[in-house]
Specification:
Chain A has two domains: 313 residues, Peroxisomal Thiolase, Chain A, domain 1 (3-Layer(aba) Sandwich), CATH 3.40.47.10; 123 residues, no CATH class. Chain A is of the alpha+beta class. The longest helix of chain A is centred in the first third of the chain and has 15 residues. Chain A has a nine-stranded mixed beta sheet with strand order 5-4-6-7-1-8-13-12-11, with helices on both faces. Chain A is built from twelve helices and 22 strands. Chain B is globular and about 60 Å long. In chain B, helix 1 packs across helix 2 and helix 5 crosses helix 10. Classes of the chains: A alpha+beta, B alpha/beta. At the A-B interface, helix 12, strand 18, strand 19, strand 20 and strand 21 of A face helix 4 and strand 5 of B.
């Protein structure tokens, strides 16, 4: 039976307490905190992060589609799923697609992946969902919205979560929207969206699904119910006839409303606690509703080494500066930099180098066995071994999945950028090889020679409307 | 090596402009100033120059100098090798004389950065094709890596390490104060140095050299012509360039405690000049102190200090103007200034002045003499690039018998 073979998630390192936002505007701060993507993170990088978590121990060459869901694509035109697949080392013969423009994009991608796997046209499909919707300063969305991502691998073998059925209602009920030029979401009157939309449509989808699956509400271990507001979400759960303990925590107090990613993130949190045999009901909302009935199998026991939601919730740093958040989100006019602007990224060179730079491949010399990266401003492909000088006698060697140790570092206050200082580190990879990378999600005071780091895929620059991505390092925090 | 440059060419004359923020001068102004100082010092006119080499990181082609000097159709080669640019222009000019092709040539180095509108050198990126997929570094970041590892390896606390590298800069400021053509001539205290704002941790403002405008020039000729025209010409003893394979960021073999290309170039230069013990035999040196830690590490790479022991020599004043082996006698890059394409010839100029007993020509009024008593051999060193990969020049000049 087709279903979920593996899962993973990602929550950015920084958390902004809602009290800090409230204090800024003289408003009551909401409960808890929201996860805030770093200045160099976006749905592409967060999809890669969740994908890396999901694909631990899984051969990426066997994956033949990547569906990426987000309402915050960094591009209007350019397939982001390709960038994610490239970074995750998924082969070119992969049917990638972006699912976007709707909070149901995550569950829509799941259902498309499921159908393709069920039909046998695709063997393994990776679904990623990531969002980082921006709330205007001093508005309710600013406190509500958080950033995060999840990834689910669909397949036919070693299925950990079977899909028993689904039901979808599509409904052009327009309670919030953004047009092509809007930076922020616009809302119709709250009561309309709540009474005619959120409190009604998912309940209808769930009723139809329960009938279809011939399942009683009491047989469901956990209900993973999307909600933008904890109180209203609980109201809907109750209205649908579920007990409070059946409702999976919607992560709103700890992460925030992560849009299209939230239903999948709640599901991952539920799967981390699930026992074989558990039935899980997943319900999304946004211009309609998807309800999906899932059943956990024995295979779930093999997926325990993911960071998922549980560990990522604990890997965090409180961001006590609202100003720093505004700066990261380009929400405030900064003093102009006294530095020359970055040169434009070359599209032809990026295309030429994409098999090495984006999945972070170096080589291993077949003559002397030395693993090595080659990262220069004009090329990322080695020809001559740096150890034995043999020519073009290499096998590919991936560094993205190797942890390493910091050999040297510096905090650069001259380089400027959105979040100075820029910390750079020389990283000696476990198993050999070295590279120099920017370090993120670090406190300058904690950096030292010998510290352990891992690789993370981030934005590097933005020139001529194009984003350039590359790998950076960050402290290992398990 | 099949051949050696030792005593095969001589310096007939030199010139060097005041370095600094030359808002008053264009590159052409600086070129004419330095070149005509050199012509005058050599006792020649520009029409006697048979060929020229111009080092510059910002200029374009040989016309960088043939236009302002209105040189009349002689061959001019433009040289670029980062911070080793001027020294490499000098090296090529020397080789043309040693080869017997010419007997009166000009080597000149020029850069004018202060019209760029920024402090420092930008992102340090090299011009040319770039995919921009990897992060560009800044020079202080690249060299700070040496300090981080040096402190860690030798167990220096932050305070001890900062004091060691601060003492390097303090010494250069003491020397720069005495020099009327230096970019920075102010008196700076250790407290100011150590507590200055951070540029790239652990390097603060006074651990970094400035970026300057300036030009320096040399006239090179044969030993015979030099001796006929001048009583005390300075002879070239060694000229070495070592180009790193730029693998320091990619192999775990590199320790970020030394600069391998400096070691290689220095050993070849000592062999060429017949030097066994540089700590004893070299009278003075101008080295590439782009950052204080660079100078510290270079002292070990040149075998001026034993490996891991430079801190003792620095703190004991071994490299001070009145020390056993004075380094950065004119203030170095740190205080005399660093117009990249001119620096190598500026260093050579300082060695040349001391060897001829003329160092006090640049003495700031009211300061004690800066002339070394009886120097025999002077060493110059440039590092173009970063510790993980760079172009290194090591040259030695001296009096005829040295």
């Amino acid at each position: 039976m087709a279903g979920i073979v593996s899962f993973g998630a990602y929550i950015p390192y920084y958390r902004l307490p809602r009290g800090v936002i409230g204090q800024m505007w003289g408003q009551p701060g909401g409960r808890g905190e929201k996860a805030v993507a770093g200045s160099d993170e976006d749905p592409v990088t967060m999809s890669v992060a969740a994908g890396l978590d999901c694909l631990k121990g899984i051969q990426t060459k066997t994956i033949n589609a990547l569906f990426m869901a987000t309402t915050c694509s960094p591009y209007r035109e350019r397939q982001c799923a390709n960038i994610v697949a490239n970074a995750l080392d998924i082969p070119r013969a992969s049917r990638n697609a972006d699912f976007t423009n709707c909070l149901r994009a995550g569950t829509s991608a799941m259902l498309c992946a499921l159908d393709a796997v069920k039909a046998g046209s695709l063997n393994k499909v990776l679904v990623t969902a990531a969002d980082m919707r921006l709330g205007g300063a001093a508005g309710g969305d600013e406190q509500a919205f958080g950033d995060g991502s999840a990834a689910l691998l669909f397949g036919n073998e070693k299925v950990a979560v079977e899909v028993e059925g689904s039901h979808t209602f599509s409904d052009d009920l327009c309670d919030f929207w953004r047009d092509g030029d809007d930076k922020f979401i616009r809302h119709w009157e709250d009561r309309f969206g709540r009474e005619e939309g959120y409190l009604k449509i998912p309940a209808e989808a769930v009723e139809a699904l329960l009938k279809k699956c011939n399942t009683a509400k009491g047989d469901i271990a956990k209900v993973c119910l999307y909600g933008a507001n904890a109180r209203v979400q609980a109201t809907l759960g109750k209205k649908m006839g579920f007990k409070p303990e059946q409702l999976q925590n919607p992560l709103l107090d700890t992460v925030g409303d992560t849009g299209a990613a939230l239903p999948l993130m709640i599901l991952v949190a539920a799967l981390e606690e699930a026992k074989p045999g558990d039935r899980i009901l997943l319900v999304s909302y946004g211009n309609g509703s998807d309800a999906i009935m899932l059943r956990v199998t024995e295979e779930i026991k093999n997926l325990e080494n993911r960071r998922g939601i549980k560990q990522h919730l604990n890997i965090k740093k409180t961001l006590n500066s609202y100003g720093r958040y505004l700066r990261w989100r380009d929400m405030i006019s900064l003093a102009p930099a006294a530095r020359p602007p970055a040169g434009a990224a070359s599209m032809s060179a990026q295309w030429r180098e994409h098999e090495t730079a984006i999945p972070l491949y170096g080589v291993k010399c077949k003559q002397c066995g030395t693993p090595q990266l080659y990262l220069s401003q004009s090329s990322t492909r080695a020809h001559i071994c740096l150890q034995c000088q043999a020519r073009d006698d290499f096998e590919p060697y991936r560094f993205a999945d190797k942890p390493g140790t910091v050999r040297s570092f510096s905090h650069d206050f001259l380089a400027g950028g959105i979040d100075p200082p820029a910390t750079a580190a020389v990283v000696d990879f476990d198993g050999g090889g070295r590279g120099q990378f920017l370090m993120v999600d670090r406190e300058p005071d904690e950096c030292q020679v010998g510290m352990r780091v891992e690789m993370t895929f981030r934005q590097l620059r933005h020139t001529m409307g194009a984003h350039t991505y590359f790998w950076k390092c960050k402290p290992v925090r398990d | 090596m099949p051949g050696s440059i030792r005593n095969r060419v001589a310096i007939l004359g030199m010139g060097c402009t005041r370095f600094g923020e030359r808002w008053d001068a264009s590159d052409a102004d600086l070129i004419v100033d330095a070149a005509y100082q050199a012509f005058k010092d050599a006792g020649i006119g520009p029409e006697e120059v048979q060929a020229a080499w111009v080092g510059t990181s910002t200029g374009r082609t040989g016309m960088t100098i043939s236009e302002p000097l209105r040189l009349q159709y002689i061959p001019v080669t433009r040289v670029e090798n980062a911070c080793a640019t001027a020294s490499d222009a000098f090296r090529n000019a020397c080789y043309s004389v040693a080869a017997g092709i010419y007997d009166m040539v000009l080597a000149i180095g020029i850069d004018k950065f202060k019209d760029s509108g920024i402090s420092g050198l930008g992102d340090g990126g090299t011009p040319g094709p770039s995919h921009s997929m990897i992060a560009e570094s800044t020079p202080p970041r690249s060299f700070a890596m040496l300090a981080t590892t040096y402190f860690a390896k030798y167990g220096l606390s932050y305070e001890e390490g900062k004091h060691m590298i601060g003492r390097v800069s303090w010494k250069s400021h003491q020397n720069g104060m005495r020099n009327k053509n230096a970019h920075f001539q102010g008196n700076v205290t250790m407290d100011q140095i150590i507590n200055a704002p951070m540029v790239s941790w652990p390097l603060g403002l006074f651990d970094c050299c400035g970026v300057s405008d300036g030009c320096a020039a040399a006239i090179i000729t044969t030993p015979e012509i030099a001796k006929a025209r001048k009583k005390d010409p300075v002879f070239v003893k060694a000229l070495q360039i070592a180009m790193a394979p730029r693998d320091g960021n990619f192999t775990q073999n590199f320790d970020f405690l030394h600069v391998e290309a400096t070691v290689r170039a220095a050993e070849r230069a000592y062999e060429e000049a017949g030097i066994k013990n540089p700590r004893e035999e070299i009278s003075m040196a101008e080295v590439h102190d782009c950052f204080s830690i660079t100078e510290a590490v270079t002292m070990e790479d040149l075998r001026f200090s034993p490996r891991g022991k430079v801190r003792d020599d620095i703190e004991n004043g071994f490299f001070d103007l009145d020390g056993k082996l004075p380094v950065q006698l004119d203030g170095g890059l740190k205080c005399f200034g660093h117009p990249i394409g001119a620096s190598g010839l500026r260093m050579l100029y300082e060695m040349y002045l001391h060897l001829q007993g003329r160092a006090d020509e640049l003495l700031n009024p009211g300061f004690p003499s800066r002339q070394l008593p009886n120097p025999k051999l002077g060493l110059t060193h440039n590092l173009g690039g970063a510790p993980d990969g760079c172009a290194i020049f090591v040259g030695i000049v001296g009096l005829e018998g040295a």
